[in-house]
């Protein structure tokens, strides 16, 4: 039963894709505008453990524009998901705590809001799509109940109006026979259908920003492509900004407008997607890209980044990437924590002689330590 349903969804997506302004190398044209809808400044989230204070998010700064997709990439443990939870104020406390920073959405700093005020923001102005729909969905409640929960909270709908809105949300994510599927339970749906339901919950109250935390991890390749095309279509229709967290550089190349690379809880490079792929500056970014196999080239063993990411409760002073760097540098070169510097228009990099081979070219842009 599930297989035939998924086939129907794929057929619908194939029809839908004919109406999407598809580019030659992506899932549709960018809908990005110049309006900034989310501004994150110096976000810091720490966890207190018996080994010490884990700096999971250590001074993260970026912004998201309306209709833009910002990709967040990095190794496991680099702080991507904790950053997403911090934006939603969902960090488990204790042991976690947001110790500093600003998250400005709609002119308000979310970190200064009360919990009751945040309840009206979550799902209404900013929402999250988690990577495992079976963990995100409650097995004892129907699809209608779970999609309708956020609608009841944010739009105050009841009865027939609520039901119609639930069905409409399911229809937006191209679930066939939404009136019937709304009465089903998560275990009655296939993996691809469950992921669409999570997406329906995310868009049900028309948020300004959606955080997609590896939403295609549990999907096979064909369903993955259809789901990404669907996200792009919804973005074009609604103008929503998307923060797309992933390990897959193939998805980044096709889906994202800009990319932020994270390492050890910090942003080490931010630029538009073409710049990141064509002229990356940080050695970590270069290593991540070179570790992706290229179908057009014959290659032996793929390059790998020597060493392991640092322990976040025992970060090295200064440049956290220095112990894994293959560049030549002195201890004095890495004693200072590298600042994030705009080396070209909209191209920011954590500038250090241990992490950027062209350091001398951009050294004059380094701010004085007193200015940081």
Description:
This protein has helices spanning 2-17, 80-87, 115-121, 133-136, 143-155, 159-172, 178-181, 191-203, 221-238, 249-255, 273-278, 283-290, 359-362, and strands at 36-49, 52-65, 69-73, 96-105, 108-109, 126-129, 209-213, 241-245, 258-263, 266-272, 340-344, 347-350. The protein is of the alpha/beta class and 372 residues long. The strands form two sheets. The protein has an eight-stranded mixed β-sheet with strand order 6-7-8-3-9-10-12-11, sandwiched between helices. The chain has a four-stranded antiparallel β-sheet with strand order 2-1-4-5. Strand 1 (36-49) and strand 2 (52-65) form a beta hairpin. The relative contact order is 0.14.
* Overall average residue pLDDT: 86
Count of alpha/pi helices = 13
Helical residue percent band? 25-40%
The CATH architecture of the largest domain can be named as 3-Layer(aba) Sandwich
Please list the strands of the largest sheet in the order they lie side by side: 6-7-8-3-9-10-12-11
CATH superfamily caption of the largest domain = P-loop containing nucleotide triphosphate hydrolases
CATH class of the largest domain: Alpha Beta
Shape descriptor reads globular
**In terms of per-residue confidence, which ranges show pLDDT below 50 for 5 or more consecutive residues?**
1-25
Number of strands: 12
Largest sheet: 8 strands, mixed
First-to-last CA distance: 60 Å
């Amino acid at each position: 039963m599930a297989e035939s349903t998924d086939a129907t969804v794929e057929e619908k997506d194939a029809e839908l894709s004919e109406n999407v302004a598809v580019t030659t190398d992506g899932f549709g044209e960018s809908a990005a505008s110049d309006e900034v809808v989310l501004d994150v400044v110096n976000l810091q989230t720490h966890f207190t453990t018996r080994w010490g204070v884990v700096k999971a998010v250590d001074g993260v700064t970026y912004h998201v524009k309306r209709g833009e997709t910002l990709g967040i990439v990095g190794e496991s443990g680099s702080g991507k998901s904790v950053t997403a939870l911090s934006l939603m104020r969902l960090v488990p406390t204790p042991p976690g705590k947001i110790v500093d920073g600003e998250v400005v959405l709609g002119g308000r700093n979310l970190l200064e809001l009360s919990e009751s005020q945040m309840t009206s923001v979550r799902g209404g102005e900013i929402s999250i799509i988690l990577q495992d729909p079976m963990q995100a969905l409650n097995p004892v409640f129907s699809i209608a109940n779970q999609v309708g929960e956020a609608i009841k909270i944010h739009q105050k709908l009841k009865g027939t109006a609520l039901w119609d809105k639930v069905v409409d949300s399911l229809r937006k994510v191209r679930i066939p026979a939404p009136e019937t599927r709304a009465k089903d339970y998560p275990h009655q749906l296939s993996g691809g259908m469950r992921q669409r339901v999570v997406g329906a919950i995310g868009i049900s109250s028309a948020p300004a920003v959606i955080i997609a935390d590896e939403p295609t991890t549990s999907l096979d390749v064909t369903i993955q492509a259809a789901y990404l095309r669907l996200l792009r279509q919804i973005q074009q229709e609604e103008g929503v900004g998307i923060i797309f967290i992933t390990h897959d550089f193939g998805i980044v190349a096709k889906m994202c407008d800009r990319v932020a690379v994270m390492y050890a809880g910090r942003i080490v490079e931010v630029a538009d997607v073409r710049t990141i792929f064509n002229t990356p500056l940080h050695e970590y970014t270069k290593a991540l890209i070179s570790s992706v196999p290229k179908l057009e080239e014959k290659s032996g063993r793929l390059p790998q980044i020597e060493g392991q990411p640092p322990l976040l409760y025992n970060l090295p002073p200064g440049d956290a990437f220095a112990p894994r760097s293959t560049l030549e540098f002195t201890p004095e070169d890495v004693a200072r924590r590298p600042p994030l510097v705009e080396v070209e228009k909209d191209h920011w990099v954590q500038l250090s002689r241990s992490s950027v081979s062209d350091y001398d070219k951009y050294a004059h842009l380094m701010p004085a330590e007193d200015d940081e």
